[in-house]
Task: structure prediction
Amino acid sequence: MKRDLVIGIDGGGTNTRARLADRRGEILGAGEAGTSNPMHHGVGAAQTELLKAIARAFEAAGKPRERVAVLCMGLGGAGRAREQQELMAWAQVELAERVEVVSDGQIVLAAGTPENWGAAVIAGTGSFVYGRNRAGETARAGGWGYLIGDEGSGFDLARGALRAATQAADGRAQETSLLLAILTFWRLDAPSDLVTRVYRSGLTHAEIAKLAPLVIAEAERGDEVASGLIQAAADNLARGIKAVSRALKFGTEPFPLALTGGLLLGAEFYRNQLTDALRRYGCECAPVELVREPVLGAVRIAVSIFS
Result:
C-alpha cells in the first residue's frame, strides 16, 4: 500500500485530470480521461473515467496502480449527498485509505489563494462562485445550470448573442455584427438557417457556448450590442462574488480571488470587465490569481489531510 502517496482529481464536465503526488505535494505523474461529473452520465460512468485517469497517472509515474493514503476528488455535481456517498464508499475500497469529495469550487480556491480562503469563480460553459472565510465557513452563488442560471458563462453569452442576432435580423433591435459573425462561424447562408442549426442539429449547450469568444471579439472591435452583453455578463459574475462576500462577512477587507474556466482564462478583455464590475460593487480583491490547473488544488487538499 502506497502510504506516502496522494491523488488529486479535477473532474469537470469535459474531462477528468488526475495527479499522483508524494506527501510533500510533488507531482509524480499525470493522467486524463473523459468527464467524471456524476450528474452527466451517472456514478458508474464517473467511476470508469476516474479509474482511467488514475491509471494513466500511475503509468506516467512508472508505478503500478495501488491504493494511496489520501484521495481528494473535486467533482462538479458531487455536492449532492447521494452521489457523494456512493463515490466515497467506492473510492475507499478501490483507491485510497482516506477519501475526500469536494466541489470543483473548493479545489479552485485551494489552488488559487495563499491560505485557502477568499472567493473562487468558475466561468466556462457554466458558471458559479464559491467562497470560504478564515473561520472555515463557506458560501456559494450561481451554479443553477444553463436553463435557469449560469449567468456570466459561455452559454449565457452565446444565448444572448443568438437573441440579439435574430432580433437584429427581424429589425426588432439594434443592428449588430454578431449576426454575420455567427453565420460565418457556423457556415450558414442566411439568418433563417439558425433555426435548423440550433434546434435540429443535435447541438449541446456546451457546443452553443463556443459562440462566446465571438461575442468578446466583436465587443473588442467596438460592437455596441456585444459590448453590452459582455458588461451584463461581467456584472452578473460580480454580483455573485459580492453575494458570497456578504454571506461570509468579508466586509471592506481585500480578499483573495481565484479565477478559472475557459471564458476567464482565455479573454483578458472579459477579466477587465469583471474587474470594473467588482469595483462598482465595492469589492476589493487581492491577490487575483488565474488558476490554469485546478487539479493542483485537489493535491493541496489531499496533502493537508495527509499531514
